[in-house]
Design goal:
Blueprint: H1 10-15, E1 23-24, E2 36-40, E3 47-53, E4 59-64, E5 70-75, E6 81-85, E7 88-92, E8 98-104, E9 106-112, E10 118-121, E11 133-138, E12 144-149, E13 156-162, E14 168-171, E15 182-189, E16 195-200, E17 206-211, E18 218-221, E19 233-239, E20 245-250, E21 256-261, E22 267-270, E23 275-283, E24 289-295, E25 301-306, E26 312-315, E27 322-328, E28 334-339, E29 345-351
Length: 352
C-alpha cells in the first residue's frame, strides 16, 4: 500500500535503521492453524491495510486505489464501512473513535468520530518535522497518546497526552536522549491513567517505562534478559487489561526477542527457529499475544499467536508472501494484512 506507513511496530524500525537484528533460535511455531481466517478488501481498493480492532470487532485502517488515491475506513463487525477521507487511521476505541495522522503543513494528528468526521490537532511545540505528529493509542475515554517531533532536521521524539477535552500534556522520560534517533515513545494505556512505552537514553540504550498521571512520575521497566549496551534494552509496545505487557528486547549479544511479562512477574520470551526480529504488538487478559517476525532466508513476514496455554501458532494466509498481524482484542480476534505475490495488500481477520 503506497500511501501508508508499513506497520504499527515500524516507528522504531524506521527510526533506528542501524540496529542489528540477529539470528534467533528457539520456539518452532506450529505450522497449522485451525482457526478461521477471513480475507477482505475495501470495495474497489487495490490495497487494504487494517491496523486496529476493538472488543466489539470493529476495526480501522487504510486503503488505496490503483490511481493512488485512498484514505481510511472503519469496518464494522458485520462488514459495513464508514469512510474517513484522506487521513491515516491507525487506532480505534470502544466508541469507534479513531486516531492517526494526516499530512497538512507537516504531519498532524487527528481524532475521528464513528460517523467518519474528524478533527486535526497538533501538540504544543510540534512543527511537523522529525517524527512529526504520530498518535500511537486511544483509550475508551478518548484520551490519546503519541509522539511529536522537534526541528525538521532532527529525529527526536517527545511524548504527548491529549485528554478527551483536547488538553495537552507533553513529557520526556528522565534520561531520554535529545539528539537524533533518541527520545520518548509512549505506546499503551494502563489502569488509572498510567502510560507505558519506552525511551532511548543518551547512550542509545532502550528502557521500558510506566508513567503515572498524578505527578507524571516515571518508573523504568528493564527486563533482566535485556542487554545494557548501545541499541540493546527493552521496548514496550502493548499492555493488557490485566497488566501483562509485551514488546521486544535486545540482549547483550544484540539478538532481538519478542516477550510478554506477566502481571504477577516473570518474562516469557518468544523466538522462532528460522526467524528473526520478533515483535509482540498486542496482548490480552487471557495472556494471548500476537505480532510478527521475519524469515531469515527470504525476509518475508510471518505472524504468530501465543495462546493462553503457551503454544505458539503460526498465523499466515496460505498463499501470501507476507502476513503481518497488527492487533488483537480481548476475545482473541486478530486483525492485520497480507501481501500477495504482486505485493498488493489485503486485510485479514483471524477468529478463534
Amino acid at each position: 500500500m503506497h500511501s501508508f506507513t508499513r506497520s504499527k511496530g515500524d516507528v522504531v524500525m524506521r527510526a533506528y535503521s542501524g540496529v542489528l537484528f540477529a539470528l534467533l533460535l528457539a520456539f518452532v511455531a506450529r505450522p497449522a492453524d485451525a482457526a478461521k481466517i477471513i480475507e477482505f478488501d475495501v470495495p474497489g481498493a487495490s490495497d487494504t491495510e487494517p491496523r486496529d480492532i476493538n472488543n466489539s470487532g470493529d476495526m480501522t485502517g487504510g486503503y488505496s486505489y490503483s490511481s493512488g488515491a485512498g484514505g481510511s475506513f472503519i469496518r464494522a463487525r458485520n462488514g459495513q464501512y464508514v469512510y474517513l477521507g484522506n487521513v491515516f487511521s491507525q487506532h480505534i476505541n470502544a466508541a469507534d473513535q479513531t486516531t492517526g495522522f494526516l499530512f497538512a503543513s507537516g504531519t498532524q494528528g487527528f481524532i475521528g468520530a464513528a460517523d467518519g468526521s474528524w478533527t486535526a490537532f497538533d501538540a504544543p511545540g510540534a512543527n511537523g518535522g522529525g517524527f512529526g505528529m504520530q498518535p500511537l493509542a486511544i483509550d475508551d475515554k478518548g484520551n490519546i497518546i503519541g509522539i511529536f517531533g522537534g526541528p525538521a532536521d532532527r529525529l527526536v521524539a517527545s511524548g504527548f497526552l491529549r485528554d478527551s477535552n483536547g488538553n495537552f500534556t507533553t513529557f520526556d522520560a528522565p534520561g531520554a536522549g535529545r539528539t537524533e534517533n533518541e527520545g520518548t515513545f509512549p505506546r499503551a494505556f494502563g489502569a488509572k491513567g498510567r502510560i507505558f512505552g519506552y525511551f532511548q537514553d543518551t547512550h542509545f540504550v532502550y528502557h521500558g517505562f510506566m508513567r503515572t498521571p498524578e505527578k507524571g512520575d516515571f518508573t523504568n521497566i528493564d527486563l533482566p534478559e535485556a542487554g545494557t549496551g548501545a541499541f540493546q534494552g527493552t521496548l514496550i509496545y502493548c499492555r493488557s487489561s490485566n497488566g501483562t505487557i509485551g514488546g521486544t528486547y535486545f540482549d547483550s549479544s544484540n539478538v532481538q526477542h519478542g516477550f510478554i511479562r506477566l502481571s504477577g512477574g516473570g518474562t516469557i520470551t518468544i523466538d522462532f527457529a528460522g526467524g528473526k526480529s520478533p515483535i509482540v504488538l498486542a496482548v490480552n487478559r487471557q495472556n494471548q499475544a500476537t505480532g510478527y517476525y521475519l524469515d531469515i532466508n527470504t525476509g518475508d513476514v510471518h505472524s504468530f499467536l501465543r495462546d493462553s496455554s503457551g503454544q505458539v501458532i503460526k498465523v499466515d494466509v496460505t498463499y501470501a508472501q507476507s502476513t503481518e498481524a497488527q492487533d488483537m482484542n480481548e476475545h482473541g480476534v486478530i486483525v492485520g494484512y497480507y501481501l500477495d505475490h504482486f505485493l498488493a495488500s489485503h486485510g485479514f481477520i483471524r477468529r478463534p
